Amino acid sequence: MVEQLLFKLAWSGFSLIFVVVGLYTLKTGREQRSRGKRMEETETTAVRDLQPGTVEVKGTAHPTEEATPMQSPITGTDALVSEIVVERWDSDDEGGHWETIHRDVQTVPTVVDDGTGEVRVDPPSDAAVNTDKTRTEVNGGDDPPEPIQQYVREESELDEASGHQFGPLSVGERRRYAEGVVEPGEEVYVLGRATEEQAGWGERASVIDEPTASGEFVFSDKSEEELVSENKWSGTLMMAFGGLFTAVGSVFALFPWLVL
Length: 260
Fold this sequence. Notes:
- This protein is an alpha+beta fold.
- It has one domain (2-258).
- The chain contains three helices and 15 strands.
- Helix 1 packs antiparallel against helix 3.
- The chain is flat, with a radius of gyration of 23 Å.
- 23% of the residues are buried.
């Protein structure tokens, strides 16, 4: 009797892991769909008409007068924003998936010019920087290109991929390295909260440097249409998987109590 009870508890406890993962995936998917909807519903504001509060701005990105573009870490491209994403392939019963193990975003002081004026943009550290990326996939046991090796050596939070040599065969972690940049002169999309700051001689100027009331701050070199589509599609997909995981986990969690 006690052994059967322990078996049921263990079975249900393991099954609840799927429920938790499913609920988290559902939540994340719902947030992504909501972000896409809010971007779609927010009207674009001309820089000259900016007022404190939620704003959507589209224009050309340039460094501020006192700033200079940086060199992106891997490709050495002149950049206002650099985004590095490192993913590791994790195998599982369903084949496997890419898991993000490192993300690094660097920015320089930037202004966006939409033809009616300029506004400074200071993305917070947790902003949703979304750039078109160049990806390099490295199979297990292989060495990545030298620029990527150099970046890994200099990045204290990122270890080199593990690998082993078995005669002529090399095995190890399979990784994907991606770099995206916003270059000077690129068209960008910004969603955030505008605030006012002292501009000298008693004047005030707007700066977009805070998330909206719903928590969004988006800075991207993609079009609004692309961003809306990405968020709605990925959100819907995550909600579908989240619902499936939750349902399956719930059924398995109840199974031993109803059948055994």
